Amino acid sequence: MKTKTQTTVFVLTALLLFTTSKNSEGKDADRRKGKPNVLFIAIDDLNDWTGILKGNPQVKTPHLDKFASRGMAFTNAHCAAPACGPSRAALMSGIRPSTSGNYINRSSLIHNPILNNSVLLPGFFQQNGYFVCGAGKLFHGYHFNEEVKGRGFDEYYPSKTQDLPPWEFKFSRPLPLSGMKNMGRPNDWGPYHPDITIEDTCDGKTAKWAEEKLLGGELKEPFFLGAGIFEPHLPNYTLQKYFDRFPLDEIELPEGYRENDLDDVPGAHSKMAHNPWLKKIKEAGQWKHAIQAYLACSAMANDLIGQIVGALEESKYADNTIIVLWSDHGFQLGEKERWAKYSLWERATRVNMIWVAPGVTKPGTTSAKPVNLLDIYPTLASLTGCKPPENQLEGNDLTALMRDPEAPWDKISLTVFGYKNYGLRSERYRYITYADGTEELYDHEKDRWEWQNLADSPEYAEVKKAMRKELPTHHEPDGVTYDLPGRKRKAR
Ligand SMILES: [Ca+2]
Asked: Which domain holds residue 376?
C-alpha cells in the first residue's frame, strides 16, 4: 500500500510527465501550424527546349506551360553545376561547388565533410516537423542509393536505397535501338515495345506514386513531397506515341548550331568531360533521330508533370501547397560540337525553374533576373517560415522577385564545373573563366546563341571587370571521388 507522500509524488510525477509530453506535442504542433506543404518536382537533363523558355520552336510542353501560367517562371535560371551529381548536391545543401569541392559526378557527397555536416534539404524539413517523402531521382543516383540512403526522408519509393523504380526493358528489336553500337546502351534511344504503357516506365511509376499520395488523402501535414522524373536523360526510351508527335522529316537541327563555332573559344573547354558522341551521331546520320528522341522523352516528362500537378490541383492540399519545379541543368544537342551537358555555356547551364506559391506568386508572371538552383533552399525556407541553418546557405531568397518580378536585383548567377572553372550570368552577359585563365564573354542582347566571344574586345573590358568581381573568393580543392568500377549500380 502506498503512503500519502508516495501517492503525491506519483501523481505529481505523472502530471509532470503528462504536461511535458503535452508541451512537446504542443510545441511540435505549433511548429507545424499553418505551414504550407511543398511539392518538389525535379526533371533530369531538361534544357531550355520548353514552351516557356523558347529554346526550340518544335517542342511540345503544354502541361509545363499551363503549370507556369499558374505561377512564376524564372527565365534566366541556371544550375550551380552542369552535371547531375554536383548540381543536385549544391541544390540539396545550398552550398556552392566551389565551397564544398563537390565538382563532378564522381565527387562523393557523404565523404565530403562539408556536405555531410550540412543540413540537407529533406532533413531540414524533417527537423521542422514536416512529413518528408519522395520518389524517383531527386539526388544523383549514386549519392542517394549508396551514400545518403534516404537520410531526411520518412518514406521513399521504391526504397531508401533505390531512387528509381525498376526499368522495363521490353523492346521490339535488339538493343541498341539506335543501331549505334559505339554509343553504348546508356546513351541509346528508341521506342518501347507496344505492350509497354506509361505506367510500366520508371517515370510513370514515380508519377503514379505521387498521384496516389496526393489523392489518397492520408498525407500528414505539413508535408514535403519530392518526385524526380528521369527523362529526358539518356537513354531516351519512351512510348512510340511520343516519337510520333515529332515526325522525323520535320525535325530541324538546333538553331543555335553553327559550324566553326569553336574557332574563337579557348581550348580549355575541351578538358571539360568532352565526349565524342556528336561526332559519332553525325557520322551515323542519326542527328535528327537523336533530337527526335530527346523531344519525345521531353513530351513524356511533360505529360507526367501534368499528371503530378493535376493530382495536386484535384487534392485537398491545392490551396496550401508550394510547388517548385526545376531541371538539374541543360543539355547540348550539337551546339558547339557537343552532345552532353558538362559545359559552362548557356545551353548546358540554363534550367527550368517554376514556382507556384499561394499568396506570393501571381499567375502568369516571369522574371528574367539571373537566379540559380542554389536559391531554391533559402526560398523554400523563407516561404515556409522555417529558420534556415546558420552559416550554410549561399543562395538567395527569391521571394522579393516573386512579389515583384522587376524588384531591384543585383545578383549574378554562378555555375561551377571543376576546380576554378566558372560561368557567370548577369541579365545581359555570360562570362566564363577557366582554371588556366582563359576567358569567354557573350552579349545575350545581341547574341543569344553565344556565337561571338567578346572576351578580347577592349570595349568590353569594363563589363569583364564587373563580372570578375562576382567570382568566388574561395576555391575548395577537389573533394573525395569514388571509382566508377566500384559502383554497385543496377543496369539503367
Ligand atoms: Ca542530369
From this structure: 33-483
pLDDT reported for residue 30: 53
How far is the centre of ligand 1, averaged over its atoms, from the C-alpha of 144 (Å)?
A: 14
The count of other CB atoms within 10 Å of the CB of residue 104 is: 19
pLDDT at 272: 80
Distance 87 CA to ligand 1 centre (A): 8
Catalytic residue among 63, 78, 79, 84: 84
Q: Residue 264: which residues within 8 A CB-CB, separation 6 or more?
A: 452, 453
Q: 331: CA distance to ligand 1 center in Å?
A: 9
User: Does residue 47 form part of some domain?
Assistant: yes
pLDDT for 482 equals 81
What's the number of domains the chain is made of? 1
Residue 64 lies in a domain: yes
Confidence (pLDDT) at 276: 86
CATH number at residue 213: 3.40.720.10
Q: Ligand 1 mean position to 349 CA, how many Å?
A: 11
Q: Which helix (H) or strand (E) holds 339?
A: strand 339-340
Pick the catalytic residue: 63, 79, 133, 140?
Answer: 140
Q: Is 79 a catalytic residue?
A: no
With a cut of 50, list the residues of the chain below it in pLDDT.
Answer: 1-5, 7-21, 485, 488-492
User: Cis link prior to 363 (omega < 30° from 0)?
Assistant: no
> Left (φ > 0), alpha (ψ -120 to 50) or beta: where does 453 sit?
beta
CA of 113 to the centre of ligand 1 (A): 23
Cell for 396?
538567395
233 tagged catalytic: no
Encode pLDDT of 186-229 as tens digits: 899 999 999 999 999 999 999 999 999 999 989 999 999 999 99
- Report pLDDT for 286: 97
